[in-house]
């Protein structure tokens, strides 16, 4: 019974005695007409540290997991009701809470639209990029999904930070680099030929020389897609320079592993047959 449930929520002793809302915060507009207000108030109270100690230590994580669904239900016009809660969760001391938000920030961006995303989500996204690897992997797995929602100028700002994904807390975390290679393949469609050559090319060559074979194999596909993308661009000098670099760096390498890399890159999509056959 909804009426009895809401009556219980309104008289919840934890909510009335342990509320973390200050008088100033209580005056902020949290009113909406999509769901019963008492139900939303109960959800917002989940970020209260005292509730985590007395009710459930995982309550903040559950709150973070449900936030995109709550935002979708309320609609972007009621984002002001959730903004403070989202920022509180994004700075939570538990990395599992931040990790949960990192994995869903791209979904929230779709719900909020480009303006709210640029103003409210981009700062949180930037914070996640500098977080622990357990949190960074969340934004990395959906890097393309998030960046494609940004305006071109804002999207280009992240070209300077892609190199940082090559550095991890644990050098044995090869899956992190493999995911980076996968995302770079998708990112080729979001950037110009010059941006690909100037920023993505060095990362791709670095991944081709990775110590883990799984990372290298994905990188071979990345380089082949990069050649195809530059070949189809209006400026042909980039693909010529890239092909010359491939020949110099791998084909003429004094190590057999380098020459083998060149063969594997050509094998992925028969590059030279496609381009010059």
Automatic annotation (TrEMBL):
One of its GO terms (molecular function) is protein phosphatase regulator activity. This is PP4R1 phosphatase. It comes from Chionis minor. The keyword Protein biosynthesis does not apply. Keywords: Repeat. The keyword Repeat applies. Residues 9-29 are annotated as: Disordered. Transmembrane segments: none annotated.
């Amino acid at each position: 019974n909804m009426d009895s449930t809401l009556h219980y929520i309104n008289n919840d002793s934890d909510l009335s005695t342990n509320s973390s809302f200050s008088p100033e915060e209580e005056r902020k507009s949290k009113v909406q007409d999509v769901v019963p207000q008492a139900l939303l108030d109960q959800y917002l109270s989940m970020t209260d540290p005292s509730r985590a100690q007395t009710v459930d230590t995982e309550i903040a994580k559950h709150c973070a997991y449900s936030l995109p669904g709550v935002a979708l239900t309320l609609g972007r016009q009621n984002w002001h009701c959730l903004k403070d809660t989202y920022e509180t969760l994004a700075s939570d001391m538990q990395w599992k809470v931040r990790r949960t938000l990192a994995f869903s920030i791209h979904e929230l961006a779709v719900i909020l639209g480009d303006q709210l995303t640029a103003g409210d989500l981009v700062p949180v996204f930037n914070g996640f990029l500098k977080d622990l690897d357990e949190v960074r992997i969340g934004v990395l797995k959906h890097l393309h999904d998030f960046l494609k929602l940004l305006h071109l100028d804002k999207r280009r700002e992240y070209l300077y930070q892609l190199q940082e994904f090559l550095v991890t807390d644990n050098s044995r975390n090869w899956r992190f680099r493999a995911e980076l290679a996968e995302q770079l393949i998708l990112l080729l469609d979001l950037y110009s030929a010059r941006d690909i050559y100037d920023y993505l090319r060095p990362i791709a060559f670095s991944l081709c020389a990775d110590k883990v074979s799984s990372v290298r194999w994905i990188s071979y596909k990345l380089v082949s897609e990069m050649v195809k993308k530059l070949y189809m661009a209006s400026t042909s000098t980039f693909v010529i320079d890239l092909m010359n670099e491939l020949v110099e760096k791998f084909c003429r390498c004094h190590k057999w592993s380098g020459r083998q890399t060149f063969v594997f890159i050509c094998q992925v999509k028969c590059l030279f047959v496609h381009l010059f056959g």
